[in-house]
């Protein structure tokens, strides 16, 4: 193979893009839409994390909830950028 010849695409690349970027972004958008629809009924403090016993062990504001889901989706999406 010469240096100028393009490399063939990896066969798993489309699947990795779908499962690693598209699905997390769609799930995050759905979560944000759900939170937006529930916003008038949500209390000032909402549960952000549940422990192994099913009991909430971290609380925060709705803004914290939206930020946590955004950071999670962003982390998954940024992994795609740095993959070989």
Automatic annotation (TrEMBL):
Residue ranges constituting the DUF1648 domain according to the UniProt record: 27-61
Pfam families: DUF1648
Swiss-Prot/TrEMBL keywords: Membrane, Transmembrane, Transmembrane helix
Bilayer-crossing regions: 16-39
InterPro entries: DUF1648
Superkingdom per UniProt: Bacteria
Protein name: DUF1648 domain-containing protein
Lineage: Bacteria, Bacillati, Actinomycetota, Actinomycetes, Micrococcales
């Amino acid at each position: 193979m010469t240096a100028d010849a393009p490399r063939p695409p990896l066969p798993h690349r489309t699947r990795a893009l779908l499962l690693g970027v598209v699905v997390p972004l769609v799930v995050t958008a759905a979560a944000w839409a759900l939170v937006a629809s529930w916003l008038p009924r949500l209390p000032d403090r909402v549960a952000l994390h549940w422990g192994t016993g099913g009991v909430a062990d971290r609380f925060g504001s709705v803004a914290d909830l939206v930020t946590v889901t955004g950071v999670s989706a962003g982390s998954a999406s940024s992994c795609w950028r740095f993959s070989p």
